[in-house]
Amino acid sequence: MLDFISPILLLICGLALFYGVLLGLKKIVTHLTRPQLIVLLLVWISIGFYFNLDYNTQFGCMLTTQYTWAIPNIVYSSLAAVLIFCSYAVQNRRYQLYLINIELCIWLYKLLFIKGGYYIGIGGAPDESILFYDVISLNLRLLFRSKTQEKPISIRYLILINFLVFKLLK
To answer: Widest CA span of the chain, in angstroms?
Structure first.
């Protein structure tokens, strides 16, 4: 009965985010500091771990819930958290970028080759909660990388990177 609310809610959130980007989210993003992005990213990773959004292996008609404390879920989430925290703790800017790039490559590998949740159910539609989590997660990682690099990332490039990454999933 309530299955139709989730896509509508995500559509409204997506439109609000799009209009927010056009009307002033750029100001908010430019005022975020690296420590604030670290906290946001670590909280987002722990949300993904707890609700099993970060490592989900559902595929096809296999709509089963997975165990949150599974070893791969713990390994991927803790590895991401440790690399992100170490990239903040290291003083050398070059090593910070190395750690961020390593974490981003590991996360993209997991997203493109290991993770499921994009072709589930009878129609083969993506799970909206997993898609929403991954979009926010990718954007937070790219924003953290741009803050570390001290070069602001253009909103156009963020949208292009999101489109390319999620187009590869299809």
So the answer is: 54
| Interacting residues of 141 by C-beta distance below 8 A, sequence separation 6+ | 41, 100, 103, 104, 107
Look up the pTM and report it: 0.79
Helix (H) or strand (E) holding 97: helix 93-109
Please list, in sequence order, all residues whose beta carbon lies within 8 angstroms of the beta carbon of residue 169, skipping any fewer than 6 positions away: 111, 112, 118, 126
Is residue 57 situated within a structural domain?
yes
Interior CA angle at 123 toward 119 and 124, to 5°?
Answer: 10
In which domain, by residue range, is 51 found? 32-169
CB 72 within 8 A of CB 66: no
Split into its structural domains, the chain has a count of 1
For the stretch 19-34, pLDDT in tens is: 565 556 566 666 778 8
Q: With beta carbons less than 8 A apart as the criterion, state whether 84 and 38 touch.
A: yes
What radius of gyration, in Å, describes the C-alpha atoms of the chain?
16
